[in-house]
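stuck on this:

***
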Amino acid sequence: MAFLSGLLSIGLLSLLAGHLFNVPWLQQWQHDAQVAAAVMFILIGVMHLVTPRKLTYMIEGWLPYALELVLISGVLEIALGIGLLIPGVNMYAAWGLIGLLILLFPANIYVAVKQLPAPGGLPAKAWYTWSRLAFQPVYVAWVWWCVR
């Protein structure tokens, strides 16, 4: 839900800035959603690279090379987030992010099933970790919609 809050906040701020400063390309919600997705994936990717040990718990014990997988996912999130902003590349980046979201979904299931705390110091309550699963399709739809 924190990711969704970021998407909505950045998207709305972009839209507001577009209208306040009369920037036509920021006055379109679809473009603002694309910018928001790019920023959020880049931020999450940076977090994966800066504090990877805080995320390895999500896959340790059931996937080998947990640290390396966290680092690889961080690099991919940054590269694909940047790709969302590049015309001609953004559709491929969107498909890459959708694939990544699908590949990462089992880690979120593992966190919920094992009753582990959500990443980033978010609530460890069962209602929160299980509710995070419902938002994964929302993120997939967001990424797809903003580049279609």
The chain has a mean pLDDT of 94.
